[in-house]
Inverse folding.
């Protein structure tokens, strides 16, 4: 039989075939609509249930009780299950590129699964939470219907209360740890920026902040479970522990975070924080009997002697802490007993705490000026330079401000205390808060969790820390923007690296807050690196090995021109250092350690054909691909 083409089919058969195709497409479209309808309905139910759980928890926290915690867990579980069902009904959304829907679908999947793990962890911990409610200052309904009364926990008694509940919650923490760890991994995969178009910037930022709290908690559980004895010793159980708190002004950047401007002494005994008094750092100058000659790095500040306020010249915090302790321990006054450790606080942590505590109204000696997170950095300098107040009053300002801030923080309670804990956790991660302990076990614990400001002594691959030291005596770093460009190439079978540090500022030179920037800049690189050249900068070159931290150090002094008129272009400067990396160093990653005192800085990495830009707000280990020219 001769072959017949489709065009020769009878007209009625072609019409029938076309109808079946149309009906199939309509059925598929209807099925998609039905799936979407069911998915949206379940998604809306889940959203409402999660909102109800959130409302119950907020209501309990505001009333210092946990009456509705079980109901909130049930709503949370049901809401997350409905959201999971909604996602399962609409799997095709993962392929939709419009308005980032596919990325949002994937991120929502991570968030829902993480939420389910968190819910399982909280269910596991619920019995222990009920038992510990009174110790945490939370009222709880007992089995006979009466209410267990408790006094709300404040920031001052929080540590003591947590230590009292530790034996009760430890088994539950141990059992819930795998759930917290799984949630932490999933949260780390969420790209929160994908939600901004749907949720808005403010709500997305709040969700991202909340997720960091869970991440911090997950990271703290192993510390609590396996280091309880060390923690107890550090918190003054049973022997009191004294700590020197040092406030560093990050506007005048120094290697450990800023120029030391004020100090406090505090005692911890049985987990309870004693009275805190803060004073200007210059008040110690006449009490200190140790007065050595200034090290070479300080010759730029025209001082013949080394002082405590300039002792934090070493980026490795334990080295600076030992230098500071040498000065402090030379004080013979019995009001300054030996300390068991030091707590380094810089400007950015103070700003974050002010966002929680609210504005501080200073005493009448300072004309009742109101200090906020937005104006604190500027007001400190206005008081110091343009207030017309007596010298002693001006120098005492930061100490008085810190005293008031500590008092307000210690008085926090409820959800505000949780926010304070979150800020402290972020501060430890971002190095706006760092710890040094005389006790070797406590110091090892702090270093293990990157709270000790230590420079990594062993790097399996490439390494870099850029260290600025403001020598101008003014607060240029509040307005200065820093970028680091790292270029690695292979030349004659040897890795050659060029690190270019660039600065620019839009601030005007006013002679007191901002002046032409003067800085001593060092880079810490793998031990055994060989300097090839340093371009720009002025003064002698520095090229030496620091065997305390097993690094080669390169550096030079830099001067940036001043800008005196808005019509002038932005003032820029740079320092470029080229060096050969050690032979046989595996280039599998680049470890970047962030300098304390800089909230974040931009790193541009080029490794052959690999080019990436990173915003570094904490220490990072960046994987490098195989080298391709």
């Amino acid at each position: 039989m001769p072959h017949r083409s489709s065009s020769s089919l009878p007209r009625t058969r072609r019409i029938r075939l076309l109808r079946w195709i149309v009906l199939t497409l309509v059925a598929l479209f209807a099925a998609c609509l039905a799936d979407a309808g069911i998915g949206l309905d379940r998604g809306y139910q889940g959203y409402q249930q999660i909102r109800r759980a959130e409302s119950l928890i907020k209501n309990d926290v505001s009333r210092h009780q946990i009456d509705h915690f079980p109901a909130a867990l049930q709503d949370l579980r049901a809401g997350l299950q409905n959201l999971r069902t909604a996602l399962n009904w609409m799997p095709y959304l993962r392929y939709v590129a419009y308005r980032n829907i596919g990325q949002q679908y994937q991120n929502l999947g991570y968030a829902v699964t993480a939420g389910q793990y968190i819910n399982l962890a909280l269910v596991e911990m619920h019995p222990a939470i009920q038992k510990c409610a009174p110790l945490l200052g939370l009222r709880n309904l007992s089995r006979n219907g009466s209410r267990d009364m408790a006094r709300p926990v404040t920031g001052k008694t929080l540590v003591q209360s947590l230590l009292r509940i530790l034996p009760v919650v430890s088994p539950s923490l141990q059992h819930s740890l795998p759930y917290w760890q799984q949630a932490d991994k999933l949260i780390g995969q969420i790209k929160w920026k994908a939600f901004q178009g749907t949720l808005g910037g403010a709500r997305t930022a709040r969700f991202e902040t909340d997720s960091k709290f869970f991440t911090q908690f997950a990271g703290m559980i192993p510390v609590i479970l396996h280091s309880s004895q060390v923690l107890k010793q550090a918190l003054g159980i049973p022997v009191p522990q004294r700590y020197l708190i040092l406030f560093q002004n990050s506007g005048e950047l120094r290697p450990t975070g800023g120029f030391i401007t004020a100090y406090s002494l505090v005692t911890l005994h049985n987990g309870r924080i004693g009275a805190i008094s803060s004073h200007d750092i210059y008040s110690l100058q006449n009490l200190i009997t140790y007065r050595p000659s200034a090290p070479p790095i300080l010759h730029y500040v025209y001082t013949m002697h080394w002082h405590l306020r300039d002792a934090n010249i070493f980026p490795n915090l334990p080295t600076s802490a030992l230098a500071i302790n040498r000065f402090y321990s030379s004080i013979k006054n019995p009001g300054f007993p030996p300390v068991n450790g030091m707590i380094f606080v810089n400007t950015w942590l103070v700003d974050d705490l002010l966002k929680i505590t609210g504005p501080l109204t200073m005493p009448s000696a300072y004309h009742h000026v109101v200090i906020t997170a937005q104006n604190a950095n500027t007001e400190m300098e206005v008081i110091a330079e343009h207030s017309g107040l007596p010298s002693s009053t001006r120098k005492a300002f930061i100490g008085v401000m810190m005293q008031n801030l500590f008092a307000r923080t210690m008085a926090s309670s409820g959800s505000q205390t949780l926010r304070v804990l979150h800020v402290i956790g972020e501060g430890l991660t971002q190095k706006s808060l760092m710890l040094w302990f005389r006790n070797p076990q406590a110091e090892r614990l702090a270093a293990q969790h990157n709270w000790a400001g230590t420079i990594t002594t062993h790097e399996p691959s490439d390494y870099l820390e850029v260290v600025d030291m403001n020598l101008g005596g003014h607060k240029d770093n509040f307005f200065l923007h820093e970028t680091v460009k790292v270029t690695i190439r292979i030349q004659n079978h040897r890795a050659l690296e060029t690190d270019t540090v660039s600065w620019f500022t839009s601030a005007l030179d006013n002679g007191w807050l901002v002046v032409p920037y003067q800085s001593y800049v060092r880079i810490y690189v793998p031990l055994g690196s060989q300097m090839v050249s340093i371009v720009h900068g002025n003064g002698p070159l520095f090229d030496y090995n620091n065997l305390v931290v097993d690094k080669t150090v390169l550096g030079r002094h830099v001067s940036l021109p001043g800008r005196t008129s808005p019509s002038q272009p932005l003032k820029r400067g740079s320092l470029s250092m080229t060096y050969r990396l050690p032979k046989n160093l595996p280039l599998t990653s680049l470890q970047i350690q962030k300098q304390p005192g800089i909230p974040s800085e931009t790193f541009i990495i080029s490794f052959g054909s690999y080019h990436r830009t990173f915003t570094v707000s904490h220490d990072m280990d960046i994987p490098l691909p195989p080298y391709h020219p």
In short: The chain has three domains: 12-140+152-192, 233-448, 462-623.
